[in-house]
Amino acid sequence: MNWTDEDKAQLAFLQTPVGEVDGGRVRYAAAMHFARRHLLSQAALEVYRILAKEDATDPRNVLARENLSTELDRLLTGSHS
Prior knowledge:
Elements: H1 5-14, H2 23-36, H3 42-50, H4 59-65, H5 69-77
């Protein structure tokens, strides 16, 4: 898949540090971008939605608990050319 500049920007937003003010909302918006592109499941998007108001909660932990962490791993480690 060819990544656009927008994809790359959204990937950076998806990795907004835990604890940053409004970080949960920023991560959720980025997750919506990837869900629209069919690169993130609706189940994973729901995790980000639930955590949108939880700036201090790491979505990776919740994704792992729900057996969805491979989706995030695929986004973070895939080819971004």
